[in-house]
């Protein structure tokens, strides 16, 4: 049994980490920190957990939390992890970071995508990108894990097989649609119900921060320098992401070769499903089909008119896009069954 702490446990990702880890047979949640809710029962911030735990939030600093457990999950905003992780990394504790602070291998990517110089560049090489299906081998010997961004996860999962099989002949163009929980629990005018409801808002037509990590991972997989562009939209949904990516090819691809690329990479993966149904309502991935689960649903289509492969992915941003990938990665790091605590069917949102 391993003991864990969740720092930033009052947030949306912290809440999902709590929900899943409280049911995990190999771990004990010992500390859940919150500055705003310190001393309150966990179910005050996460009413869905009433009856599942009598824990209260603590106001431990991340370093104090780290001194009490085997593994710390950092579920705090970008720029906040970096203030604590360098000291925590010397304490012997294992760290799973949900923020972007350790996702890049190359320190030069931080000024480009986040606008700041990385203050602890030596640590970047010690973190493993927490995408189990692509980094399983490195995760087995990891001590520090950096969990991918949510839109990055859906994009990379859906394009990676095409990158590996050499299909990426030009710039990859991603269209992303995301629900409101993607921006966390801190309210703003932009997330106010009256402003967000009934709206399809293109909040990032270009230059989205996740492009950097998508390029990083697709370049590693393909062995070439991959260029990506993306437009991201917030849509009328609380949870879920749909990414529709255009991969342009020089020669018209054969459908069998594309299938082979996906099957070779994901044929045995427990959390990858293919949604390619010739009939019915759900012919392709739809976030509605994955909510509440750790699945990534994938599909593709061929656009012969302009020699384009359309790669489709959908996830629950808070699970396969955050807490689920974090726990799956931890399971691998600790030598647990990779599926432990994660094999639940999605909700049927009807
Ligand atoms: N939401 C998603 O879909 C998603 C997906 C993938 C990754 N992530 C990443 O996961 C992390 C958490 O995201 P979230 O959506 O759960 O955010 P959130 O709902 O805003 O929660 C973050 C929590 O961190 C604490 N916090 C806020 N500002 C802080 C600061 N400056 N220093 C220390 N703690 C602070 C807050 O708790 P107290 O003030 O009570 O301590 C808050 O509840 C972020 O890095 C985010 O980018 C999010």
Automatic annotation (TrEMBL):
<comment type="function">
    <text>Involved in both the arginine and lysine biosynthetic pathways.</text>
</comment>
<comment type="similarity">
    <text>Belongs to the NAGSA dehydrogenase family. Type 1 subfamily. LysY sub-subfamily.</text>
</comment>
<dbReference type="GO" id="GO:0019878">
    <property type="term" value="P:lysine biosynthetic process via aminoadipic acid"/>
</dbReference>
<keyword id="KW-0521">NADP</keyword>
<dbReference type="InterPro" id="IPR050085">
    <property type="entry name" value="AGPR"/>
</dbReference>
<dbReference type="InterPro" id="IPR000534">
    <property type="entry name" value="Semialdehyde_DH_NAD-bd"/>
</dbReference>
<keyword id="KW-0963">Cytoplasm</keyword>
<dbReference type="GO" id="GO:0042450">
    <property type="term" value="P:L-arginine biosynthetic process via ornithine"/>
</dbReference>
<keyword id="KW-0055">Arginine biosynthesis</keyword>
<keyword id="KW-0560">Oxidoreductase</keyword>
<dbReference type="InterPro" id="IPR036291">
    <property type="entry name" value="NAD(P)-bd_dom_sf"/>
</dbReference>
<keyword id="KW-0028">Amino-acid biosynthesis</keyword>
<dbReference type="GO" id="GO:0003942">
    <property type="term" value="F:N-acetyl-gamma-glutamyl-phosphate reductase activity"/>
</dbReference>
<dbReference type="Pfam" id="PF01118">
    <property type="entry name" value="Semialdhyde_dh"/>
</dbReference>
<dbReference type="GO" id="GO:0070401">
    <property type="term" value="F:NADP+ binding"/>
</dbReference>
<comment type="pathway">
    <text>Amino-acid biosynthesis; L-arginine biosynthesis.</text>
</comment>
<feature type="binding site">
    <location>
        <begin position="10"/>
        <end position="13"/>
    </location>
    <ligand>
        <name>NADP(+)</name>
    </ligand>
</feature>
<dbReference type="Pfam" id="PF22698">
    <property type="entry name" value="Semialdhyde_dhC_1"/>
</dbReference>
<dbReference type="GO" id="GO:0005737">
    <property type="term" value="C:cytoplasm"/>
</dbReference>
<dbReference type="InterPro" id="IPR000706">
    <property type="entry name" value="AGPR_type-1"/>
</dbReference>
<feature type="domain" description="Semialdehyde dehydrogenase NAD-binding">
    <location>
        <begin position="3"/>
        <end position="142"/>
    </location>
</feature>
<keyword id="KW-0457">Lysine biosynthesis</keyword>
<protein>
    <recommendedName>
        <fullName>Putative [LysW]-L-2-aminoadipate/[LysW]-L-glutamate phosphate reductase</fullName>
        <ecNumber>1.2.1.103</ecNumber>
        <ecNumber>1.2.1.106</ecNumber>
    </recommendedName>
</protein>
<dbReference type="InterPro" id="IPR058924">
    <property type="entry name" value="AGPR_dimerisation_dom"/>
</dbReference>
<comment type="pathway">
    <text>Amino-acid biosynthesis; L-lysine biosynthesis via AAA pathway; L-lysine from L-alpha-aminoadipate (Thermus route): step 3/5.</text>
</comment>
<feature type="active site">
    <location>
        <position position="150"/>
    </location>
</feature>
<feature type="binding site">
    <location>
        <position position="317"/>
    </location>
    <ligand>
        <name>NADP(+)</name>
    </ligand>
</feature>
<dbReference type="InterPro" id="IPR037535">
    <property type="entry name" value="LysY"/>
</dbReference>
<dbReference type="GO" id="GO:0051287">
    <property type="term" value="F:NAD binding"/>
</dbReference>
């Amino acid at each position: 049994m391993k003991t864990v702490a969740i720092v930033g446990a009052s947030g949306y990702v912290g809440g999902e980490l709590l929900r899943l880890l409280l049911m995990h047979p190999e771990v004990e949640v010992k500390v859940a920190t919150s500055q705003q809710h310190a001393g309150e029962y966990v179910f005050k911030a996460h009413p869905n957990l009433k009856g599942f735990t009598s824990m209260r939030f603590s106001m431990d600093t991340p370093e104090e939390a780290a001194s009490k457990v085997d593994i710390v999950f950092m579920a705090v905003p970008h720029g906040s992890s970096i203030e604590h992780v360098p000291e925590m990394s010397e304490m012997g504790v294992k760290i799973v970071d949900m923020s972007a602070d350790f996702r890049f291998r190359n320190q030069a990517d931080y000024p480009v995508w986040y606008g700041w110089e990385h203050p602890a560049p030596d640590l970047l090489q010690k973190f493993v990108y927490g995408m189990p299906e692509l980094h399983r081998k490195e995760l087995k010997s990891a001590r520090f894990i950096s969990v991918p961004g949510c839109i990055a996860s859906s994009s990379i999962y859906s394009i990676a097989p095409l990158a590996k099989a050499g299909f990426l002949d030009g710039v990859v163009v991603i269209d992303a649609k995301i629900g409101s929980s993607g921006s966390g629990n801190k309210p703003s005018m932009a997330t106010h119900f009256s402003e967000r409801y009934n709206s399809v808002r293109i909040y990032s037509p270009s230059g989205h921060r996740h492009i950097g990590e998508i390029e990083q991972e697709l370049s590693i997989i393909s062995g070439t320098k991959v260029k990506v562009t993306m437009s991201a939209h917030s849509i009328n949904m609380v949870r879920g992401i749909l990414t529709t990516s255009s991969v342009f090819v020089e020669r018209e691809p054969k459908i069998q070769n594309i299938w082979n690329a996906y099957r070779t990479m994901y044929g045995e993966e427990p959390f990858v499903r293919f949604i390619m149904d010739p009939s019915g309502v759900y012919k392709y991935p739809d976030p509605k089909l994955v909510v509440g689960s750790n699945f990534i649903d994938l599909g593709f289509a061929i656009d012969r008119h302009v020699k384009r492969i359309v790669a489709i992915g959908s996830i629950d941003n808070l699970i396969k896009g955050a807490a689920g990938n974090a726990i799956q990665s931890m399971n691998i790091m600790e030598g647990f069954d990779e599926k432990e605590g994660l094999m639940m069917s999605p909700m049927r949102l009807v």
